[in-house]
Specification:
By secondary structure, the chain is of the alpha/beta class. It has a single domain, classed as Rossmann fold, CATH 3.40.50. 37% of the residues lie in helices and 26% in strands. The protein is built from seven helices and eight strands, in the order βαββααβαββββααα. It has a six-stranded mixed β-sheet with strand order 2-1-3-4-8-7, with helices on both faces. A two-stranded antiparallel sheet has the order 5-6. Helix 1 packs across helix 6. The model has no long low-confidence stretch (mean pLDDT 94).
Length: 195
C-alpha cells in the first residue's frame, strides 16, 4: 500500500487570516494529479508535529496568536525544531515573523507599511506588512513568506519545488490538469500587475 502523506494545518480557525491554508490544498491536489495521496489534518491542540510530513504555520491577528499561544505555548519552538531538523514547513506573514524570531533568537524589525503585489525570485505574491524581512526565504526544507494567502496557487513552480525537495514524488510528471492549472496561475500572475 502506498504511503499517504500527512499535512498539518496548525490552528486553522486562528491562523488562516487570508486563506493561507489553501497552500495545503494546492499541494494535496498537485500530488493527487500525480497519483500520490495526502491527508490534511487540523491541529487544534498541542500535538507531536514530528508525525507530519508537512506543517503549515499561517497568519493570524494579534488576538488569534494570543489565543493559540495560550492553548499551545510551545508551538513556535516545536515548529522551530522541525525547521532545524530539515522537515517540510511553510510559514506565512505573522507565522514567519514568530518563526524567524525563534530561529534567530532576536526580534524582527518593523518599518513603513507596504501593501502591494511583488515579484521576488519569480514568485508573485501580495505583501501587506510592515515587517523588515525578505518577502520569501527558504531554509532547509522550509519556505517562509510575507506573501499572503495561498501563494502556491499562483506559483506552481514553487509548489513543485516544495514537493520535489520533500521527495514525495517526481514533479516531472505532467498531465492535462497540471498544465491547465499552471496556465491559469501564469494568467493570474500577469493580471496582478495590470493597471
Amino acid at each position: 500500500m502506498a504511503k499517504i502523506f500527512k499535512f498539518a494545518a496548525l490552528y486553522p480557525k486562528h491562523l488562516d487570516l487570508n486563506g493561507d491554508h489553501g497552500n495545503l490544498l494546492v499541494l494535496q491536489k498537485r500530488l493527487a494529479w500525480r497519483g500520490v495521496s495526502a491527508d490534511i489534518v487540523s491541529v487544534t491542540k498541542p500535538t507531536d508535529l514530528e508525525q507530519f510530513d508537512f506543517v503549515l504555520l499561517g497568519h493570524g491577528s494579534r488576538d488569534a496568536w494570543a489565543e493559540v499561544l495560550r492553548i499551545d505555548p510551545e508551538l513556535i519552538s516545536k515548529v522551530g525544531k522541525l525547521v532545524r531538523a530539515s522537515k517540510s514547513v511553510m510559514a506565512i506573514s505573522s507565522g514567519y515573523e514568530l518563526l524567524i524570531e525563534e530561529l534567530e533568537s532576536s526580534s524582527v524589525s518593523h518599518a513603513n507599511h507596504v501593501s502591494e503585489f511583488r515579484v521576488v525570485d519569480k514568485v508573485v505574491g501580495y505583501v501587506n506588512s510592515d515587517l523588515v524581512l525578505p518577502e520569501i526565504q527558504q531554509l532547509n526544507q522550509t519556505v517562509m513568506t510575507l506573501f499572503h494567502g495561498p501563494v502556491l496557487a499562483k506559483n506552481p513552480e514553487l509548489a513543485d519545488q516544495v514537493i520535489s525537495k520533500a521527495g514525495w514524488c517526481d514533479v516531472v510528471i505532467r498531465n492535462l490538469e497540471i498544465d491547465s492549472v499552471n496556465e491559469l496561475a501564469s494568467a493570474s500572475r500577469r493580471i496582478a500587475f495590470e493597471d
